[in-house]
Amino acid sequence: MTDKTTPLTPSEAHGLRYAQELEGHLTWLDSFTSAALAVLAVASGIYTYLGVSSLLDDNGALSFFAAMAYSIAVSVGIFVFWSYMMRLLPAVRSAAARMGLFLSMMLGSAAIVAMSSWLNAAALAGAAAVEQHLANTVQQYQTSLERAHSIAISAQGLERDVARVRQSFEDLSEQEASGQLSGLAGRGAVFRVLRQKSEELAALEAQIQAQAPAVEAAFAEGNAILKRMRALTVEPGPVEQRSVSFSEEAVRLAGVITTLRQLSVAPLVVRSANDLSASVVLPEVSEISGEQSSTIDSVLTVLSQRAETLRQAAEAVIALPAPADITYTPISAADAVIMYAGNFVPSWAGAIAIDLLPAVLVFIVMVTQAAIRQGRGRAGVEDTLTLAEFRAALGAVREVELALDRTSERRADSAAEAKDKPDDAKVQRFKAAGDE
């Protein structure tokens, strides 16, 4: 073991001066560290109050006092917790004690984030997060509207398939009328069957054409609603009031999308295609000659083929992915900040930093205290005295010596007085003899 009575080596003396310099810096920093912690705690409490206020529906006195009490509790908790950590964690020396306090700091930091930081983030970016929610909802509605319109337009495209089949039946009927089909000119059974189906397809084609203006009108109305919803997203003013108007527009837009889905004529085309070959009105058998009978069989075969082609085209439209059912759900600022946390990383970083910044100060003090202990080495208290402290110690020693000297002088004077003072018994005897 090193003898502490031996003089310090030059390196030990240098380390001691280094430690004393660090102690001087810590002493100066300690003069305002508590005030800095208080400012951080109060700032966090203010933003916590704003975050709690956004969660409370009531704006009365009770809600005010509840939010105020919570924010004050957060401020006091943050100040006390970091004061404990800043004083105790750098001071302990054993690994077990340091690990225990470090785990306590981790647990306390998690508690601070849970009770304060997310509310601070809600206060910092709550309105922007709600606007982000509105913007995302508008995008979803726009996608659904465009999808419904695309399906409706695809269904309207079936008009060309219907027109093509109708035209083919009309051409066949004209050929039958001139005798080119069955060999018998005229408007007989084959002609009537072909005309019957062409007229059915013409009626279906007219229904499809009648749907086109309604589809375009619904799409135009939906775009107008989307325009108003986008304006509400970026419009100045409280976001809570804009959310109410946004919700009303969302309900209207959902109705428009439903209307567009109902305007699709694809199911109607499927039903018409199924009826095309099933509902054939044939004339009496006695009226049909052999040539016409074979022609009618051929016509029925063609009807079945064309009906199957038309049905497949309509079912392909029906099989297209349907537009998603979008429902706008209003959310609070705190919920919006959590839902869209990835879009507000700077706000989250600021909200957490204002609560956990003292942890950096704790680590700084820990490193500095370790450097001070290393610099002291085996130096004793007498080696760490500064010139001012040494002068003060000498002054104290002189005052003690003066006090001891004054005490000795008082004792000596008391002894001399006692020696010079006559004996009381002798004085009494002398007085008695004089009286006699």
Describe this entry's structure for a reader.
This protein has helices at residues 10-55, 61-88, 95-156, 158-177, 189-234, 239-262, 266-278, 290-318, 333-339, 345-376, 387-420, 424-435. Helix 3 runs antiparallel to helix 10 (345-376) and helix 5 packs antiparallel against helix 6 (239-262). Helices cover 81% and strands 0% of the residues. The chain crosses the membrane at residues 26-50, 62-84, 96-119, 348-368. Keywords: Membrane, Transmembrane, Transmembrane helix. Residues 411-436 are annotated as: Disordered.
H/E series = HHHHHHHHHHHH
Largest sheet report: none
What Rg, in angstroms, do the CA atoms define?
A: 50 Å
Helix content: over 70%
Spatial separation of the terminal alpha carbons: 86 Å
Range of strand content: under 5%
Identify the CATH architecture of the largest domain. Up-down Bundle
Please identify the top-level CATH class of the largest domain.
Mainly Alpha
Low-pLDDT regions: none
Q: Examine the coordinates and then state which fold CATH places here, giving the name of the CATH topology of the largest domain.
A: Ferritin
Discrete helix count: 12
**Mean of residue pLDDT values:** 78
Taken together, the total number of domains comes to 3
Overall SS class: mainly alpha
Number of strands: 0
Q: Given the C-alpha coordinates, what overall shape results?
A: rod-shaped
